[in-house]
Amino acid sequence: MRASRFAALAGNARAFMGSLQRALHLHDVEGAVFRTYKDCLSQYAPVSARHSLVRCGR
User: Fold this and answer.
1) What is the 3-state secondary structure (H, E, C) of the chain?
2) Per-residue pLDDT at 55 exceeds 70
3) I need a surface site. Which of 10, 16, 47, 57 has the fewest CB within 10 A?
4) pLDDT digits (tens, 9 = 90+) for 16-53
């Protein structure tokens, strides 16, 4: 069950990154703005993972 859950999360992450990339191209986002956004996401990722684990009772 855990493997399927992580596979689903990985699929969601790939879909999110794909949509983010399309949005960046559509709006011609500057590199500095993207790096700031990426840093925010990088800081949020561990929080999101911990939240997922807590919800699963781990």
Assistant:
1) CHHHHHHHHHHHHHHHHHHHHHHHHHHCCCHHHHHHHHHHHHHHHHHHHHHHHHHCCC
2) no
3) 57
4) 888 878 887 777 778 788 788 788 878 887 877 777 76
